[in-house]
Write a structure and sequence with these properties.
Layout lengths: L5 E5 L1 H9 L9 H7 L5 E3 L12 E6 L4 H12 L3 E5 L3 H5 L3 E3 L3 E7 L10 E6 L2 E3 L2 H4 L2 E9 L6 E11 L2 E6 L3 H10 L37 E3 L5 E3 L3 H19 L6 E2 L8 E8 L5 H14 L4 E4 L6 H9 L3 E4 L13 H15 L6 E2 L11 H8 L4 E2 L36 E2 L4 E2 L10 H11 L2 E5 L2 H6 L1 H16 L2 E3 L2 H13 L1 E4 L5 E4 L7 E6 L2 H4 L5 E4 L2 E8 L5 E4 L1
């Protein structure tokens, strides 16, 4: 069985035109989405390269919408290729009786189970098509439905228009899927003012302090659920659901072409899920740290400690490290604490943190109070200082716990147009809830873990040392969360451990040899990597070790590192 060849086209001239005028090309983030699961692909930077290409599936991620591009795409598809686009391709579909409609902001997609979640999936924008030629319209199939503003809103069109041309197919999504994923994870614009508060008073983000959750793209009413105790929480990681849609569609197309497209499991073999606990040293009182250390020793887990300002005593920092915990940075830019938002202030505080802890290579950071301004300045400061991971994405209010950033996956953020939408070399690890049961009660734990487990993400909980020290009910809640995680088979890692795994996984390169055997290079000796190999229905008859992943049947291969390459049949 051969491996399908996949390409992403970002036409360089078209992208440069966008950047010249300060417009983003967020569809470049598709590469990050495929890389997150280890899917092999290649970049194309000129639409003309498609004419000589031997690829099977092409994402027209950012191309000109003109007759020249349409002609090249048609020729590729007629010869058996598949083209997928997220909006665009209006010139091509105009030839089949469809016309572009106005872009609509915010809505919900209802998709068939074969490619999507059963729950309506929120999106940030979509450009639907409508038919104007009934005769040509018959050549186009439509899949899914889009609803404006709410799941019960006006139906504004189909999620997908699909047309067969010769031996191949063009699939056009009306939803700007990649832009929606970026918007959920990072907002749709730089944070320069307070966000919109919840009308019921549970999420007063309009507090005069700029922070990460001023930029959430969720609806306080439509996207929250209530637990049995009436605790509100954001219930759906919409960005992760869209990631799932993309991978499902891609793997399904590859298998129907009689090819395979191996991908890497989210976590190492026999790790069913990963959780982490972080603590912020607000107040820097040694007694708070001692009680927290005792609790962690009782539970036999290691956690990430974000150290603010002067931190604890040198003896306490030594104890924390000797116990196997991670010492991280806690940048404080709150004006009330004489903090400032700026690179120099960040650098100065980090130097103090390194000096007082004795840790010169600090890996992780979390901003105090989730302080945040602009778009990517924080990630740029982290890069310059060798900080590889950030944990600032999280709730600052009692009413916005959960998946307020649409994800429980670790991800690399994308830059704004002024940096040509590059990826920041910083792994973001969002947290879902702080200080249970003081911030939100413990009724949110089970539904959040259910969703995290379903999406194979990270269960990241924040517990301040001061809260752990002060209240037995917080210590009991901590114990209960750990017990539930262990019951579900979660491994509990530090932020550094997660960062190390994410980066090690990204280095793995999957190939198939001429016999159809899996070859992987760049394997780390620290992990057993799981590779899933999609198979056709014919192969299922000869293999009893079949599991379903992303809607397709797969064979599982566990790979251990060898000095150079790993071979598995």
């Amino acid at each position: 069985m051969r491996m399908a060849r996949v390409a992403i086209i970002i036409d360089e001239k078209a992208a440069l035109r966008n950047w010249k005028y300060g417009l983003n090309v967020f569809n470049t983030y598709l590469g990050e989405i495929l890389a997150h699961v280890g899917i092999r692909f290649e970049w194309m930077y000129d639409i003309n390269d498609l004419q000589q290409s031997q690829v099977d599936i092409v994402y027209a991620a950012h191309v000109n919408d003109d007759l020249e591009t349409t002609t090249i795409i048609r020729e590729f598809v007629e010869n058996g290729g598949t083209v997928i686009a997220f909006s665009g391709l209006h010139t091509l579909f105009n030839q089949y009786g469809y016309v572009k409609n106005a872009t609509r902001n915010v809505g919900y997609a209802k998709l068939p189970d074969s490619i999507g979640d059963s729950h309506p999936i929120r999106y940030i924008s979509a450009t639907p098509l409508s038919a104007h030629d009934e005769k040509r319209e018959l050549e186009v199939s439509e899949i899914g439905e889009l609803y404006d503003q709410s799941p019960s809103g006006e139906k504004i069109g189909s999620a997908i228009q699909q047309v067969k041309i010769g031996e191949g197919m063009v699939c056009r999504w009306a939803v700007h899927i990649i832009e929606s994923i970026v918007g959920f994870q990072q907002s749709t614009s730089p944070i320069v003012e307070d966000g919109v508060p919840a009308k019921d008073g549970t999420g007063k983000v309009n507090d005069g302090i700029l922070k990460r959750d001023d930029g959430i793209e969720m609806d306080w009413t439509l996207d929250r659920k209530k637990t049995t105790t009436s605790q509100s929480y954001f219930a759906h990681p919409y960005g992760d659901l869209w990631r799932d849609v993309i991978i499902r569609q891609l793997l399904g197309i590859a298998v129907r072409k009689g090819a395979t497209l191996p991908f890497i499991g989210y976590w190492p073999n026999e790790v069913k899920g990963v959780a982490m606990f972080s603590h912020d040293s607000d107040g820097n009182i040694d007694d708070h740290a001692r009680v927290t250390l005792d609790l962690l020793e009782e539970l036999q887990i290691n956690t990430t400690w974000c150290i603010m300002d002067q931190g604890y005593s040198s003896e306490m920092h030594q104890r924390i490290q000797e116990a196997g915990h991670e010492l991280a940075f806690h940048y404080n830019a709150r004006p009330e604490d004489n903090g400032f938002w700026g690179e120099q202030h960040f650098d100065e505080q980090l130097k103090v943190c390194r000096d007082v802890t004795g840790v010169k290579e600090i890996v992780s950071n979390k901003n105090h109070y989730t302080r945040f301004e602009g778009w990517g300045e924080l990630y740029s400061w982290c890069e310059k200082n060798g900080i590889q991971s950030d944990q600032t994405n999280g709730p600052s209010k009692k009413g916005n716990v959960g998946f307020l950033f649409g994800t429980c996956q670790p991800f690399f953020p994308i830059a704004w147009s002024n940096e040509k939408n590059r990826l920041y070399d910083v792994v973001q690890l969002s947290y879902v809830a702080p200080d249970i049961p003081h911030w939100s009660d413990d009724s949110v734990v089970l539904p959040l873990l259910d969703e995290i487990e379903r999406n194979e993400g990270i269960a990241h909980f924040l517990f301040h040392q001061s809260r752990i020290h002060k209240a037995e009910e917080v210590r009991d809640a901590f114990r209960d969360v750990v017990m539930e995680l262990r019951h579900r088979g979660f491994a509990i890692w530090t932020g550094k451990q997660i960062n190390d795994w994410v980066r090690a996984k990204r280095k793995v390169r999957i190939e198939l040899d001429s016999n159809g055997s899996v070859r992987c290079s760049n394997l780390s000796t620290d992990y057993q990597v799981v590779v899933w190999i999609p198979i056709t229905s014919e192969q299922e008859k000869d293999d009893g070790t079949i599991e379903r992943r992303f809607g397709v049947n797969c064979r599982k291969k566990v790979l251990n590192a060898l000095p150079e390459k790993q071979f598995e049949s």
